[in-house]
Automatic annotation (TrEMBL), chain A:
Domain Metalloprotease TldD/E C-terminal, residue spans: 295-542
Organism encoding this protein: Hymenobacter nivis
Coiled coil, from the record: none
Listed name of the protein: TldD/PmbA family protein
GO biological process: proteolysis
GO molecular function: metallopeptidase activity
Keywords, ordered alphabetically: Hydrolase, Metalloprotease, Protease
UniProt cross-references to Pfam families, sorted A to Z: PmbA_TldD_1st (PF01523), PmbA_TldD_2nd (PF19290), PmbA_TldD_3rd (PF19289)
SUPFAM superfamilies per UniProt: Putative modulator of DNA gyrase, PmbA/TldD (SSF111283)
GO CC terms in record: cytosol
Alphabetical list of InterPro entries matching this protein: Metalloprtase-TldD/E_C, Metalloprtase-TldD/E_cen_dom, Metalloprtase-TldD/E_N, Peptidase_U62_metallo, TldD/PmbA_N, TldD/PmbA_sf
Hydrolase recorded as keyword: yes
Family: Belongs to the peptidase U62 family.
All copies of domain Metalloprotease TldD/E N-terminal, residue ranges: 64-128
Lineage of the organism: Bacteria, Pseudomonadati, Bacteroidota, Cytophagia, Cytophagales
Automatic annotation (TrEMBL), chain B:
InterPro entries, alphabetized: Metalloprtase-TldD/E_C (IPR045569), Metalloprtase-TldD/E_cen_dom (IPR045570), Metalloprtase-TldD/E_N (IPR002510), TldD/PmbA_N (IPR035068), TldD/PmbA_sf (IPR036059)
Superkingdom of the organism of origin: Bacteria
Family per record: Belongs to the peptidase U62 family.
Transmembrane segments: none
Record-level Gene Ontology MF annotations: metallopeptidase activity
One protein family per Pfam: PmbA_TldD_2nd
SUPFAM superfamilies (alphabetical): Putative modulator of DNA gyrase, PmbA/TldD
Metalloprotease TldD/E C-terminal domain: residues covered: 221-431
Stated name of the protein: TldD/PmbA family protein
Xref: PANTHER family: CONSERVED PROTEIN, TLDD PROTEIN
UniProt domain Metalloprotease TldD/E central: residue ranges: 140-212
Amino acid sequence: MKRRDFVGLTGLAAGALFLPEFPSFGGTPVDPARLLEPGLDVAQKKRLADAGLNAAKAAGATYADVRIGRYLNQSIFTREKQVQNLASGESFGAGVRVLAGGTWGFAATNNVSEAGIAKAAQLAVQTAKANSKVQKEQVRLAPQKGYGEVSWKTPIQQNAFEVPIAQKVELLLAANAAALANGASFVNSSLFQINEQKYFASTDGSYIDQDVHRIWPTFSVTAIDKATGKFRSRDALSAPMGLGYEYLTPKAADQIAGAAGTGLIYYKNSYDILADAALAAKQVKQKLTAKSVVPGKYNLVLEPNHLGLTIHESIGHPLELDRVLGYEANYAGTSFATLEWKAKGLPYGSKQVNIVADKLQPGSLGAVGYDDEGVKTKRWDLIKEGKLVNYEKIRDQAHIVGQTESDGCCYADSWDSVQFQRMPNVSLQPGKAKLSVDELIKNVDKGIYIAGRGSYSIDQQRYNFQFGGQVFYAIEKGKITEMLEDVAYQANTQEFWNSCAAVCDESDYRLFGSFFDGKGQPSQVSAVSHGSATTRFNGVNVINTARKIG
Amino acid sequence: MLSKDDAQTILKKVLSFSTADECEATLNGSTGGNVRSARNSISTAGAAENVSLSVQARFGKRSGLATCNEFDDASLRRCVQRAEEIARLAPESPEYVPLLGPQTYLASPGSFAARTAAITPDYRAEQIGASMALCEQKKLSSAGFFNDSAGFVAKRNSKGLEAYQQRSSVDFSITVRTADGTGSGYAIANYTDLAKFDAARLTRVAADKAASSVNAKAIEPGKYTVILEPAAAVDLLNNMMNAMDARNADEGRSFLSKKGGGNKKGEKVFDERVTIFSDPTNPDVPDLTFAGDGRPQQKVTWVEKGVVKNLYTSRFWAQKSGVPDIPPPGGWIMAGGTQSTADLIKSTAKGILVTRLYYIRAVDPQTLLYTGLTRDGTFYIENGQIKFPVKNFRFNESPVIMLNNLEALGKPVRLGGNLVPPLKIRDFTFTSLSDAV
C-alpha cells in the first residue's frame, strides 16, 4: 500500500493548518509557543531510562539502550503573496533496543512513564527472542565505554523557534516579492526548522542528553513564456544547515562570488534570501531563452552547492557499510565498493580526491556529540589521495572489517524508529595550493560551469549516475561565455572521480546539505552535509535533455 | 478497530464540544506490523497499533488542527480547545472554502479483509522464514520486506458530513541475488486480502530472475523496443498521474499546459489505446470512497482513447475556475488487453524485457522527462524468445512519449493500489550502460 493511503487522511490533516497537501515532519500539531517549553529534566529522564534498562536486563537482555526523544519541528510554506501552510509539531516518546539471544529487538512507546518504558523493554526482549530462532548471524557489538552523565548542544546563536512566526512569514513573503519584482511568474518559499531533544542511556553506563538544531530556508522561482508555453524554474542556493536562525541574518563575510560572468553569489554560514530570490528571478527568465546544449564531452566546473549532491550519491552512499554488506539490497541497494574491491587497491579517484567523514564539523547537519547508540563522534579519512581507506560504520559492523570501534554513524529519525547506520557528513577536502574559481576556469578550453542542485539519479550499486543543476554556463577558451539549458551529465563513479583535475582552495570551501535523505524499510529520513570547493572534472559526457511532446 | 457506530459516537461527542464556526473531526485507526530480512536472516521487525483523532476548527477563514490519541471526555475536550486556540492564532486563508455538507458515498466493502487484520508476528516470521529457506536451498541470498496494515477512517463535521470505511493491505517485496553477486531478481506484490498472498511464488519469481540474469552481456545503449513489466511501468505512470493537477496546468507549469494559456483537457495527448480511470469499488483494487477532505471518490475517467478527459483540482481551484470538483484518485486503473508478459515476449522480434526501474527522478517537468535505471532482471528478446541477460541501462524517457510509442498492452495486474498492464513500447530511450547488478 502507498504510504499516503493510510497516513493520508489524518497524517496530512495532522500536519496542516490550511491545506492538506504539504509535507509534514509528523508529531502532534501544537501551538508554536509549546516549542519553547522545556521538556523533562535530566534527572527525570535518567530515572525513566533506568526503568527501561533494568526491565530489559531482568527479561534477559545482554545489552539495552533507551532513547527518550522529544522531536520538535515547524514548517512554513508560502506562495507569491500568501501563506499556504504553517505547522508546528511535537513528537514525544521512548524507544528501547535490546540484544537477546544474539539478536536485536526493538519496541517503542508514547507512554513515557517507568511502567510504559519497562513494558516496551519487555516487548523488545520478547521480539528479539522470537527472531533469534530464525537468526543466522549473531550480532557482535564493538566494545564501548560508558561516558557517565554528559550533554551536547548544537552551538546555535538563536533558536529559530524563539523568532516570532510573523517575522519568519514576513521574510519569506519579502523574498517572494523580490522574485516577483524581478519578473518571476510564480514563487514558492518555505522554511523548515527542527529541534531534536534526545536522551540516550545504555547498559554500558552512558547517560547522554543532546539538543540538536537544524534549519532550511528555500524557494523555487518559476518563469513562464505564455507565447511559447515554455516554463523554467530556479531553486534557492541556500543550504540546509545545523545552525539557528542566525543563518538568515546575512553577513558580507559569508558571501562568495561565483565565476566571473555569471553574477552568482554563494553563501557560507549565513544566507541572504532576498538577494538570492531577486537573482533567481533574473536568471530564470534567462533560462527561457538560453541556448540548448550541444551534447558531447566537456570539462565540468562544479561549484559546491551542486557538487555536494554528487559527493553524497557517489561517495557517501557507496561507503555505507550496511549497503556494502547487503543489508539494503531490497531497497536502497548495495555498493560497488565491496570489501573485495577495496582489497584490490584500485583508485576511487585521482590524487586530488581526499574525502573525510566528519561528525564534528560546526554548522553541518550531521554534527552531534554522540550518535544514537552512545558513541562519541569523530572525524576520519574515507579516501586519501584517491584511494579508499575506510567505510562508514556502527557498533555491530566494526568487527566485519576487522576494526574495534564504531565510527559513530548510528541514527534514528524518531523515538519510535529503530536506530541504524546512516551517512556522516562526507566532504571533499579543498586543494592545498592557492587556486581561485576564475584561475581554475582560465585553463578550461571547452567546458560547462554548473551551479545548484538539480535532478539526480544513480544505480543501486552506485556506478552510473546522472545529474542536472540549477544554472549552466558555457566555458570557452578560459572564459564564461553564455547561459546554457537542457544540460545533464552522465558518468561512472570511478571514471568521474578519476577525472578530477583540480580543486579550488579553502577560501571557496562551503557546505551543501541534504535535509531528507531516505533509507531503510520502513523508510527513515536523515540530514547530512557535504563540503567542497569548486572542482574541475575532465572529459565528462553531457547529454541534452530537451524533448518535444504534442 | 472501532466499529462505525463506536467511531461516530466519539465524533459526535467531539463536535458537541466545539464552539468554532465550523468543525470537522476524523478518526484514523490502524494496526499492523512488518519484518525485514537481508542475507537470508531477519534484520528488523516492528509492530504498531494506533488510533488517533484529528480535529479541525475554523473561525471565519482561520483554521487550526489538533490531534490526540486518548478518548475520555476530558482529552477530547482538550483536543477541540487546542484546535480552536491554534485557529484563533492563524492568519486568514485566502483560499478558504467552507466545509462540505452531507455527501453520498459509494460502497466498497472489499477494501477490508478480516484475514489481513488477523496477521500475527508469528505469521510474518513464518512467511519471511519460508522465503529465506527457499533461497538458502538454492544458494541464493535474499533481502525482503513484509508489511501489513488494517484499519478504518471515520469522519464527521458540523455541516452534516459523515463517513466511515475500513481498509487493509499486505505488501511484500523481495530481492534475490546470487552468492557471487552477478545475478539479481525481484518480485513485488500488494493485496487487500491476505488470501491472495503467496510468498513462495513471489520468491521463486525473484530467484529465477536472479539465476537467469548472471553473465549479462553489454549491448549498445540507444532506442529499443521494450516490454516493461508492471513493476517497471508503475512508477513512470504514477508520476504522470501525479502531474494531472488542473491548477498547475492552468498556471502554465505542467505537461498539460497549453501554449497561450489553459490546459489540454479534451485534447488527444496519447495513443488511442490509452485509457486510464479510477474506481474505488473495483474488486481488484478496492479503495476509500472518500478523499481526505470528504469529497466523494467516484469512478473518474482521466484519459479515454488517448484524450485527456479530466484533471483533478483542489476545491478552491475548482470554485475559482469553474471546473468540475474532482479530488486526486487513491489509485488508478490502466485498461489493457488479455495478453500476459510471456505473450508479449512471443510477439516480439527484437527487444528488451525490463523487470524493474529504479531511482526515477524528474529531469524536465515541461515534457515529463524522467531518468532512472533498469534493475534486477533485464533480458534481450529475439524472435519471440528471451535470448540472454543484458547489462542494466540508464533511461531518459517521458511517459507521454512512451504512451505515444505504444506497441501493445497486456493484462493489468495490481501494484501499489493500481492496476497496471505490462507495456510494449517502441523507441524507448536508453542513454548509457550501468555495471550495477
